[in-house]
Amino acid sequence: MASPVLAPYGSFVQVDRESETPVYLQVAHQLIAAIQRGYLPDEHKLPGTRRLGNVLGLHRNTVVASYAELEAQGWIEIHPSRGTFVRNGYTPRPEKPTNRHHRLLAGYPQDTGFSFKKWNVLDSPFVHSPARLHLDDGLPDPRLSHVDYLTRLLRTNMKRKGNQSKLGYSNLLGNEYYKENLANFLNLTRGLRIAKGNILVTRSLELGIYLVAETLISPGDRVVVGELGYFATNMILQKAGAVIETVPLDAEGLDVSAIRTLCERRPFRMLYLTPHHHYPTTVTLSVQRRSELLALSSEYGFIILEDDYDYDFHYDDSPQLPLASADAEGRVVYVGTFGRSLAPGFRSGFVVAPKTLIDEMGKLLGIIDRYGDVLTELALGELIADGEIHRYLKKATKAYKERRDHLACLLVERLGNDIDFVVPNGGLALWTTWPSDLNLMQLARVCAKHELDVPRYLLYQSKKQAGIRLGFGSLTLDELTESVNILASALQQSVRGTR
């Protein structure tokens, strides 16, 4: 029988006094780890509580509590007249007592002991920055959100006895009340002709696109997107096994003649587009090209995945209706976000499609998100039913239009000789083109030194062009002014640095 003095208990047990876990539990858990790894074999006699306390620099009572925990879990047996013994029942082969293994006893493993698939196409472009000011790709401002109003709706719905039965697993495709009101809202604002059975409710736009991709895309399927496009959608499509092909854009949106050429060369499975305000260039797909795309889809049989991106934000004229409103053959799958102008926690994604496809995608959604978000859906349903969403959008749109115009004026005043842009008629961002020989990453690094974060996913650089998507929705007028001043100063420093 091994002597309790010879076991390196100081290596087994490393107490972290900053941890929220009580010290006696830390000791117990790490002794269990030592037993499981074979460092303390079955029938090993542990030292007395006072002696182990001296070795670990702990009070005897702490060790007493640790032993009590070990005994309660069945790892040791305490015999008052003989001592305390390990009772494992199974003794694994002891690991070689390296420093690495000793560290693992005190903390969770830093890596797996097995290989696994790594999704290189899903590497996140989002990096936290400690900068005081942050540019984004066109996010709304939570400070303008209807948080107080929606909070009252949530509280009211939680108190209603009739809603308690709705908090279970009754409908995996979305709350019926919300879907009915959402269908009415989309019919009124988008010219659709749908019923609630044509809607699948998701927690986000990206989850909706994921469900579409997993249901409709097979490995090797070709999917056409704009040569500049939404990075998250491209990542989701590639994860599903799609082969991405790109087509150019101009002032009227996607080049439909290039799409026709692809169709004639070899059929493809799907076309993804954001026709209202193309991401990232903000251009609107012309009426003629919308009609041509629907005709091409009918002729060649490809799916149109239409993204509702930024549809609710229009400033100068009425928005063009989506392709889905003119789809008579069920070839368009329409995805979007309801409540994009609200705080992120109150938003909801949706997919609109023929009911047969909705039911099939619902099977997958029922597996990966069985619970849904019923309380939020009930609140959003009321937001539509009482007309508050229309009043709120009118107020928010006025504020965002002011920010768009302010940013446009600032860019002309401070950067007008160096950049080009077209003021969009909607959306929450401007597309700007910069000198082609300018290193945009260097520009971003200079901005960071002046407390302005310019994330790399806003930067589009190639041999032909240098473009930056500048979101204005989440910044106040003063914040926009300071941000543009920093950009202008950084541009001058970057230009001087390249000469």
Task: Provide an overview of this structure.
It is a single chain. With 499 residues, the chain is α/β, with parallel strands linked by helices. The protein has 3 domains: 98 residues, Winged helix-like DNA-binding domain superfamily/Winged helix DNA-binding domain (Arc Repressor Mutant, subunit A, Orthogonal Bundle); 112 residues, Aspartate Aminotransferase, domain 1 (Alpha-Beta Complex), CATH 3.90.1150.10; 247 residues, Type I PLP-dependent aspartate aminotransferase-like (Major domain) (Aspartate Aminotransferase, domain 2, 3-Layer(aba) Sandwich), CATH 3.40.640.10. The chain is 41% helix and 14% strand. It has 16 helices and 18 strands. It has a 7-stranded mixed β-sheet, sandwiched between helices. Strands 14-15-18-17 form a 4-stranded antiparallel β-sheet, with no helix packed on it. The longest helix is centred in the C-terminal third of the chain and has 28 residues. It is elongated. It starts with 8 loop residues before the first helix and ends with a helix. 39% of the residues are buried. The N terminus is likely disordered.
